[in-house]
Design brief:
The chain is an alpha/beta fold. It has two domains: about 5-180, Rossmann fold; about 200-320, CBS-domain (Roll). The chain is about 45% helix and about 15% strand. A five-stranded parallel β-sheet has the order 2-1-3-4-5, sandwiched between helices. It has a four-stranded mixed β-sheet with strand order 6-13-12-11. Helix 2 (about 25-40) crosses helix 7. The longest helix is centred in the first third of the chain and has 22 residues, at about 5-25. The chain starts with a helix and ends with a helix.
């Protein structure tokens, strides 16, 4: 057996299943999205997602994806539901029930409960003749496709298709809600993702920590300010705090002379230093510093309506884990 060929065939089989799934989507998918959005608009219900076995694992993943993308959702185990957890489900909720066969005995109580209390039931199954399909208010039918398992027994293509269909529901809900990166950050405050979604304003040095001088400031005072703030530069502003220029170590070297200390900041400054807005992602600032110039730069001045309000340095970005 050629191991690589076998692996490629497996992936190819699952990919073909996903293409079948894409082509199978119909108005029922649109109805499902509309129904869930209507529930969200009332700010009362939650999306209840359930399934047994491997469908249950997929349901757990889908509930987590939903919750992290702005749809209030949680997983209810159908076995536990039959022993009291049905009380967690209210008439304001919407249920998504996953079962490839649609005939699991464990899901029957949840189907009956949904019907008794008129709770919208979205069924996700590959069996159109199953109890789940017949009793669903909205049927998301997963096409019958060849399993990637060589003996045709292990759920492979079918589970991949179910995960993809669940992702399609979750991300379509995200897109129809108009969710932004900032909204997404609210649900991911920790970990690598939370760091990558930090804004420039979260990491920038504040105005009070910056070496700010005026154009008429003499260079002896500029050097004292640069030494005190220890940032390797001085930022030149006007009387209203608007950015005019910058003096870096390179500028000092280029203008080195016996009369250096008698010159003014306005005479030595380089105009139009690189800036960034405070509401952009810090990751965007890091990309600008590293990739948008012939040689990488180490800082960007943060301005709001031309007024200097901070500085984003590469050190803070790297320390925050943004890379």
């Amino acid at each position: 057996m050629n191991i690589l060929e076998s692996a490629r065939n497996i992936i190819q089989t699952e990919a073909e299943g996903l293409l079948e799934l894409k082509d199978s989507l119909d108005h029922n998918f649109e109805t499902a999205i509309t129904t869930i959005n209507a529930m969200k608009d009332k700010h009362q219900g939650r999306l209840i997602i359930s399934g047994m076995g491997k469908s249950g694992h997929i349901a757990t993943k889908l509930a987590a994806t939903m919750a992290s993308t702005g749809t209030p959702a949680f997983f209810v185990h159908p076995g536990e539901a039959s022993h009291g957890d049905l009380g967690m489900i209210t008439e304001h909720d919407v249920i998504i029930l996953l079962s490839n066969s649609g005939e699991n005995s464990e899901i029957s109580d949840m189907i009956a409960y949904a019907k008794r209390f008129n709770i919208p039931l979205i069924g996700m199954t590959s069996n159109p003749d199953s109890a789940l399909a017949q009793h669903s208010d909205i049927l998301l039918l997963v096409p019958k496709a060849k399993e990637a398992c060589s003996i045709g027994m292990a759920p492979t293509t079918s589970t991949t298709m179910m995960i993809a269909l669940g992702d399609a529901v979750a991300i379509t809900l995200l897109e129809t809600s108009g969710m932004t990166r900032e909204d997404f950050k609210i649900f991911h405050p920790g970990g690598k993702l939370g760091q990558k979604l930090k804004k420039v304003s979260d990491l920038m040095m504040k105005e009070s920590d910056l070496p700010l001088v005026k154009t008429e400031t003499t260079m002896d005072q500029v050097l004292l300010t640069m030494t005190e703030k220890n940032l390797g530069s001085a930022i030149i502003i006007d009387n209203n705090g608007a950015l005019l220029g910058i003096i870096t170590d390179g500028d000092l070297k280029r203008h080195m002379s016996p009369t250096l200390l008698t010159k003014t900041a306005g005479e030595l400054m380089s105009p139009n230093p690189k800036t960034i807005a405070p509401d952009l992602l810090a990751a965007e600032g890091l990309d600008i510093m590293l990739n948008h110039f012939k040689s990488p730069i180490t800082s960007l001045i943060v301005t709001d309506n031309k007024k200097v309000i901070g500085m984003l340095r590469i050190q803070e970005c790297l320390q925050a884990g943004i890379a």
